[in-house]
Amino acid sequence: MIKYFKPSVFILSIIPFVLIVYKIFYNKLGPEPVKEITHFTGEWTLIFICLTLAMTPLKRFTNLIIWIKIRRMLGLFVFFYATLHLFTYVGIDYRFEWQPIFDDVVKKKYVFIGFAAWLLLIPLATTSSQKMIKILKQNWKKLHKLIYVIAVFGSLHYIWLSKTIFFKPLIYSLIIILLLLLRLRFKKTT
Ligand code: HEM
User: Fold this and answer.
1) Which of 69, 72, 76, 145 has the fewest CB neighbours in a 10 Å radius?
2) 49 in Cβ contact with 154 (< 8 Å)
3) Residue owning the nearest CA to atom 23 of ligand 1
4) Share of residues in the chain with pLDDT > 90 (%)
5) Which of 85, 93, 160 to mutate to test the pocket of ligand 1 (most atoms within 8 A of CB)?
6) CA dist list (Å): 135 to 37, 74, 127, 182
7) Arithmetic mean of pLDDT over the chain
């Protein structure tokens, strides 16, 4: 049973991607297709950040190592959806026109912090292999703590870009704060 768990989580994790590809090919994105793809990929990036952060508390609550076995894969999905999200913005929205993109990054704080979050994901994604865990040893754990910073940047990005609707960004931020507090609590008791 356990051997099917990881592949099942993998299949579930690519469903949002399949869904957005389906919507693109069958013209089901609504009146603002680029906005729809940006929102969809952005939200799924945040969902995968929350799922990745939830694995350690889940392991502590259930005493099952299985959660840790899928944590790295979920982290890679964060990078995958964040890169799709960035590509939508850079490639589809701005058609690789670097000057206005650069202006956005320096002028709009939500773009700046989103971009910073994506940059911080690069060292995590490139060191996610078993080989890199062995090479980096204790430093691997230290480096991968960057996911906490990424989570905070991601929620700030969502709060700052939402001019009127604050409910969803607030919910995600509360979930992220809760997950980070749970870690602190476990650290104190262990
Ligand atoms: C970890 C990284 C990131 C996360 C978690 C994230 C998350 C999100 C979320 C949740 C949304 C709103 C979705 C909705 O409205 O339902 C969003 C929108 C957006 N994001 Fe990101 N994002 C990230 C990185 C980036 C990067 C790197 C860029 C570009 C440089 C970017 C540019 C945008 C833009 C332009 C929007 C749409 C703003 C609008 O509605 O006008 N994001 N993002």
Assistant:
1) 145
2) yes
3) 114
4) 91
5) 85
6) 38, 22, 9, 29
7) 94
Given the CA of residue 101, which atom of ligand 1 is nearest to it?
A: 30
For the whole model, what pTM was predicted? 0.94
Instruction: Find out whether the beta carbon of 82 lies less than 6 Å from any atom of ligand 1.
Output: yes
Return the closest-CA partner of residue 173 out of 186, 162, 158, 188: 158
- Quote the number of domains for the chain: 1
- Cα end-to-end span (Å), the chain: 30
- On whether the CB atoms of residues 20 and 80 are closer than 8 A, the answer is no
Residue-range definition of the domain harbouring residue 118: 2-189
Kindly report the protein residue whose alpha carbon is nearest to atom 38 of ligand 1: 161
Please tell me the distance between residue 138's alpha carbon and the centre of ligand 1 in angstroms. Answer: 32
